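USER:
I wish I could look at a protein chain and see how it folds. I am handing you a single protein, as its sequence and its fold in token form. As I understand it, each token names a local backbone shape. I hope you can help me see how the letters and the tokens relate. The protein I mean follows directly.
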Amino acid sequence: MGRLGLAFRCFFRALAGKPLPEEALGRPAPALLPAPAAPAPPAPPPTTAAVQVLALLQKEGRLLDFLQERIDGYSDEQVGAAVRSIHAGCRKVLAEHVGLAPVLEGEEESTVEVPRGFDPSRIRLYGNVTGDPPFKGVMRHHGWRATALKLPSPPAGSEPSVIAPAEVELP
């Protein structure tokens, strides 16, 4: 290949974002290798447990509908009536699908000791936090931790990001 042909080849390869041929870089051309196999199509994003739990809370308790609703115009009695069914549905989901346990054992409002080396993801200190552990304080909330997660398998071919499908009534 002449110098002009090599120049054009380099120019168009550069435009296409491809590497320059070895001979343009002053190196001998490598032996031809078989073309690599076409890359596999990208895998769909995995269904996450968080989306599945939200879907269950929506299905059984219509939690997202309630949280997205502007409730300023409703009376306390109307909100209270709606919350009863939402509470029952969401509580059912937690009982069936999520194992829960307190982070700290003991009664709320009792005195507890937070040891040296405590895990701040398990215990949040607030108030007059000075000095080094161990700390003595009042447990205002025992916290929650998940002990199990039992989720159904999503239907084959379902879109993993859909929490609840749109509902369309046909005449």
Remarks:
- The chain has a mean pLDDT of 82.
- DSSP finds four helices and four strands in the chain.
